[in-house]
What does this fold into?
Amino acid sequence: VGVGAGRREQLVGALRGRSRYSVRVRARPDGLSFAGFWSHWSAAASADTPPGRH
It folds into this structure.
């Protein structure tokens, strides 16, 4: 999922209830203020979703 320049969050929808999700992120300079390469991937962070509604 790509996140626009200057944004620090990305909402993710359509997740299943009672499930565990893991995410990792990396960053890339915008090419205007900074130039360079993609960063290394972050460590994984996990979260559990609550039970879904019936």
User: Anything to note?
Assistant: The chain has a mean pLDDT of 88. Strands lie at 20-23, 45-48.
